[in-house]
# Entry
Amino acid sequence: MEEIRTGVYICHCGLNIAGVVDVEEVAKYAGQLPGVVVSREYRYMCSDPGQDLIKDDIKELGVNRVVVASCSPRMHEPTFRKAVEDGGLNPYLYEHANIREHCSWVHDDKELATNKAKDLVRAAVRRVCRHEPLVVREAPFTPSVLVIGGGIAGMQAALDIANGHQKVYLVERDPSIGGHMAQLDRTFPTLDCSECILTPKMSDVGHHPFIELHTYSEVEEVSGSIGSFKVKIRKKARYVDESKCVGCGDCEEKCPWKVPSEYEMGLAKRGVIYIPFAQAIPNVATIDGEHCVYLQKGKCRACEKACEAGAIDFEQKDEIIEVEVGAIIVATGYDQFDPAVISQYGYRRFDNVLTGLEFERLTCAAGPTEGKILLKDGREPESVALVHCVGSRDQNYHEYCSRVCCMYALKYAHLAKELTKADVYQFYIDMRCFGEGYEEFYNRLSEEGVNFIRGKVAKITDDAVTDEEKGKLVVVSEDTLLGKLIRVPVDMVILCSALQPRADAENVGKILNINRRADGFFLERHVKLDPVATPTDGIFIAGCCEAPRDIPDTVAQAEATAAKALSLISRGTVTLEAAISTVDESICHGCGRCEEVCPFSAPSIVSKNGVMVSEINEALCKGCGACAVICPTGAVTIKHFTQDEILAQVDALTEAR
Amino acid sequence: MAGFEPQIIAFCCNWCTYAAADLAGTSRMQYPANVRIVRVMCSGMVNPLYVLKAFEGGVDGVLIAGCHLTDCHYIDGPTKCDAMVDKLREMLHVLGLEDERLRREMVAASEGVLFARVIKEMVEQLKKIGPSPFKARTEALA
Amino acid sequence: MEVLSPYKEATEVILEAGGEPLKLCYQCGLCTGTCPWNMVRSFLVRRIMHEAQLGAVDFGSEDVWTCVTCKACVDRCPRGVEIIDVMRALRRAVASLGIGVVPDALRISAKNIAGVGNPLGEPPERRNDWAKDLKVKDFAKGTEVLYFPCCVPSYDPGVKNVARSVAAIFDRLKIDYGLIGTEAKCCGEAIRKAGYEETFQSLAQNNIDLFTSNGVKTVVVSSPHCYHTFKAEYPELGGEFEVLHIAQYLASLIDKGKLKLSKELNKKVVYSDPCYLGRHNHIYDEPREILKAIPGLELLEFPDARENGLCCGGGGGRIWMDTPKGERFSDIRVEQAAEMGADIIAVACPYCVLNYTDSVLSMGKAETMQVKDIAELVAEAM
# Structure
């Protein structure tokens, strides 16, 4: 048996560790532990000279096990494994002790922290002796990407990947791609028309030879892992043959049944068979099965008679499409917060209290009022109030800032002034105008004569106390700069509603096995240094499914995810987990408990030389260790997390120093 | 029991609770130095033997903490861990160890505050109930 | 120009007195816009928070004593600032350190409470005189329920009937209940909110010891203020009892079929949510269930009912202070009730009874409008 020659390296991390932990003493202590041949402390172990210490000791002192005590292994374990490998050792003959995040940063008592650091180092030294060299395996990477969500984020990511001549499956839940951006009238701060910049992209997506578009479809199941995800897509029956439909709209005209249009935020009606909006991609009709009188009650078929192309197909069924992809980009967007829960704002109780998206539809030339800002009774408003932070920055609803509201409120103020000459009052808490050209836009609106009132609106009421207030909506707030209660009678109130996670984000997270933050949005791998990756390898997030953000940021994120996916594809292979389970066939009874407990179907019971034993499919095993816990004979072990290793670590931790 | 400082071993899953402990660190939250963390890949990886070994070694409390039920990197590790802990508790009763000595928690990666709170609570509670009866026995044998 | 400089020491005094939550305030002004005072006069809650943050509070100002602790602002505050705790901290600073002026009326009530255990300054031995002729038994070990009526119904001749009605109901239903001895003192809820922390501590300790030594398990109270402090504040001091407001107790008896109301009351009744029953303790349905169980009664609702209910003006120690005509919330309520055509304002709090009765009388509406506690209505309908 080889002699264990361990090298221990204690990092100062400047004063981050050394300011609390007596690193010299820890190094001295480690030096006398069994098997340790060298113990050093150094200012920054992760620096090149720091790593060189390790490499040199491997070469010169014959060190064959390495322990570094520094920051979290989640930060620098890969760095030091690489250093060990560069020094000529197997990278798994390495153990990490976390004496920064778990020690110097959470304890200010120097003696206690130093003692704890010694314990952690002792346990690591004890464990590293038991490490075995492991082989890192590679598997081929399937050169295709699934993009979930056909809003601006999903479209941008899909186009970038497809333009690199890699296959993209783009799945959109609604009958058309476009997302929320397709509902917007103009975009801040440049006021360019949203449709004008969006529809060329939609058209590109629709016709791209490398994009396979599935609209009115949902991802139902995802299995596998980075490099080879197997995806089941449910293509919902739209009862229209897409290949025959020419998008003429005759069916919708003849459909006798009308329901509120989702695209128009309920401000207009659509047919039960419908094309959601004029620029829809694909430009084909969809029958809303839930409301179709024929499908529900067996009578009507008016659309069928109207369709000259013969595209209506009531026999159509949901279809399951299975694809294999190497990476997944999640771009599922956001829901608008429903302000009706803030009862004192009177949304749905008062006709002329609107949400932002409703107002977008009013100002849009193609919208229900042909671009006129009108009250419910058809009059033009003489005064408009904009209420910021509705459901945002409020721990009763959402604690976060929704980031876009200040700017779109300014945009609405401008549109209200331009289209109606109304007096505009903005009730804000703080104006957050941080992007390119944003502060300038704020300045421009001040010039245009918008009234800015600093105060969170307490209520909106029709209870008039003066003649002036009669027949108006009265916005009540403190003007916090004047220190006075202010009542502003207006004709129309626009609630700048928060952006919130999709109602089904939890379910999507489960399907993809990605986590959500406490606020409900998807969790990025690292908030600063890995903002579009998720903790699950090969799955990336872009746009408002990760947090509220504006269009430029969404597009930048989408492009980032595309770059990530393309980089994986161009590498061509994926590294598989090395710390996976293994079976000692000499003691395995073939009882099959491992097979039952494994969520990835890695073990299977096979006959070897007439004996039933468990066999692990290494490509499927993720190394969770459930099989090792359940195994009644101890035949199954997780490499790098063996019973022997963890018991040794626990043992070391319970010993006296 | 003046001056009694309980010794705790915490088995923390790599993806959630270990990361939560990291977050407590990056946020510079202070909590008692009585805990030593053993990193495991999943709470479902914790073998009851590890816990028994820790108690045998004389620790006063053991924490097993990992992802919430729906957050598991390996789909259902926390459920398996819960089942293991239920059985283990019965065993600990037989051995005469108080319920409070084994704590099972779910602490997500974002819950650094919760991690620090759990450690604080555990230390306070263990201070109240005193050293593990095993510690005395082990010491007597030694 | 007057120049302000932050006065750290004053901030620290407020923080130490329990004003810690004020640190969270981001000055949006929602509290000011929500506060009922601004219907009748200016009261800039937000500005007080900021003054407290900077230590620039005018401790001599009447604003220190204005808050009625109705909790409307706290429930809406986007930062979750416990504004009532901050107001209480300011008052503590004045009451204990003497750095400002305590209003005369409050000072007298505080003195009475500290001296004889009730704000009215009545002799302690007469605490149970309201029940003299009713032969209510004294609470003894094993008695199921302790009835704790609150100082106001115990002593105030105008409100006594609330307690007497409860006794009548309990007698008719043969409930095993009793009254605790005359060593009982004011629950202390309001005087604590008024800043007299030490007085509260001694009242609470007295009552906890008294209840514990008598083996009290269940307390039924008429006042939401007693309810609140027994339920939320006494446990921290070691007093753990089951606490039920009379509305909860009666509603559960109706629900179980034990209490049947048979006499018709053909009146329009509007129920006003007491802040300490509603917003502070989320009890909205039980009083309404009781009123609906009275045959013939037509239950009306104020436009701002339940979570949005308007305070009577009596919380936070305001019940002992003078509020000038034109600034009384109870006047607004009575006006609203009259406009709705209500015959009776039903309440579930002795402070509400006091304030609404006062308003009805001073507004000359006594002919057409009555104020009744739900216990009184139940007793009449049995």
